[in-house]
Amino acid sequence: MKRILVTGANGQLGKCMRDSAQNFPDFEMLFAGKQELDIDNSDSVKEYFSKNKFDYCINAAAYTNVEKAESEPKKAYKTNSEGAKNLAVQCKVNNTTLIQVSTDYVFDGKKQTPYKEEDTTNPINVYGASKLKGEEYVQAFCDRYFIFRTSWLYSQYGHNFLNTILKYSKERKPLTITTEQTGTPTNANDFAKAILETIVKGSVDYGIYHYSNEGEATWYDFAKAILLHTGQLDKTKLVKTKHYSTFAARPKYSVLNMEKYCNTIFNKTINWEKSLQQLINKGI
């Protein structure tokens, strides 16, 4: 039986990982929130690993507020970079395979075709830069690792685009949504399952992988699909805009190419709108 640590247990991915764990009874999974394990603190991480033996560590802990990171860069780097480094160091010492979660925001969005793993990184905001530094630390300090870049994560948990649109539609607030950015909405439940399937396979093809749902959309497309599948489209004033002012710069195109993941790890993915519809149909 494989023993697996999941950090960031109280975040949306951590909660989706907990739900997915029910379908993997052969795994012994330990979920640690910030109170149980503060990855920002190297001594805390060292002590935690000295008391527990893990085959895998899934790092779902992150500073994810893209806007706020611009005014709180030290906090973003502390968790997304130094936290990843602390885990990487202890994973190497303890022969633990590290699965690090990263982001499409490591790219600048200037391409017009899906980004491959080997494409040049060039983050244009603090969040993306802090996650990229985390990737670099993992590669420098850990031998056995998977870095999964994903995009536009949403779920039934926490603060995300899906829940924001649902909240505003219930309050009958008009929505002005940008068409300027294109990416792939990714169901965090699918991502959690994909990570655990990677462990099931026992792959030793370590490195960087891209994972998202299939297809691409603008934020406007995403909002329209949410309203359509919840029966709120005709009841909500939805307006598209090309320009939408944000504090943090965001890549205009950040669709990820998943050929490497599908060919090496697991060949099954699902279209973003189909996955969204399935989640909504569960009655979130």
How would you sum up this structure, described in words?
The chain is of the alpha/beta class and 284 residues long. It has a single domain (2-159, 185-215, 254-270), classed as NAD(P)-binding Rossmann-like Domain (Rossmann fold, 3-Layer(aba) Sandwich), CATH 3.40.50. Helices cover 39% and strands 17% of the residues. The chain is built from ten helices and twelve strands. It has helices spanning 12-21, 42-51, 66-69, 73-93, 126-141, 161-170, 188-201, 219-229, 259-264, 272-281; strands spanning 2-7, 27-32, 56-59, 97-103, 145-150, 153-154, 175-178, 182-183, 186-187, 207-210, 217-218, 238-241. The protein has a six-stranded parallel beta sheet with strand order 2-1-3-4-5-10, sandwiched between helices. A two-stranded parallel ribbon has the order 6-9. Strands 7-12 form a two-stranded parallel ribbon. Helix 1 (12-21) links the parallel strand 1 and strand 2 (27-32). 47% of the residues are buried. The model has no long low-confidence stretch (mean pLDDT 95).
